[in-house]
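HOLO CASE FILE
Compound: zinc ion
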Amino acid sequence: MASPLGQSPLLTRLVEGALEFLWPARCVGCDEPGTLLCPACAASLPAIDQRFACPHCGAPFGWLVCTNCTEPAPELGRVASAFAYEGVVERLVKVYKDEHERRLAPLLAEALRFAIENLAECEPSVLEAIDAIAFIPATEQAYLRRGFDHMELVARELSKRIGLPVADVLVHHRAGDQRELGGEEREENVRGTFEVMGEVWGSRLLLVDDVITTGASLREAARALVARGAFVPLGASVARVW
Ligand SMILES: [Zn+2]
Ligand SMILES: [Zn+2]
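Model generated. Tokens follow.
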């Protein structure tokens, strides 16, 4: 359920993170100078309450299962998303990815930590026995365009915060354009687009991504990992399109 954050610890951490920087910055939400995210915009972020979110895809509505998840993938366990993908959150992700504002990586990592901690309040066992953080990497084309792997950077920031190592094990091949596709078509379109490099047999991974639209990419990446003997009991994203 999306709701304003108010003066939550997340807000404090996001704003402190944003104020750490010494060179000129502007709020992604309102253009206020001096910060990447001002307190007012941070307070307006539509946080998803994990108690009321879909356990399979992190959608804000669907405590048992949302309308997208009639057949959840057995390869992927619980999924939590921090925010609904709208307004300032949309800007946050776009400025980070498309305007290459790498200083937002710590904020996005804070969002992931927020989602995971919020979920752990409802289900204390979710973080138990997780060995490492895997991430949905950029395709080669996106990497060349941006000059950095946006989720690798976020995963490394998250690693510092939750004390788990990063498992850089996925390779992401380009799928056809997803934008016009519905759920089933997306599932088909991403089939086989992830490859696992390195040893993952027996590891229990937290899999993170920036935005979940239908969850097709996250599920496909989980499938590739599980096919190589890993477990993916937990997924998390910064935002869920709904
Ligand atoms: Zn602002
Ligand atoms: Zn769902």
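CASE NOTES: Residues 54, 56-57, 59, 62, 65-66, 68-69 surround zinc ion (ligand 2) (CB under 6 Å). The first strand starts at residue 2 and ends at 3.
CLOSED: yes
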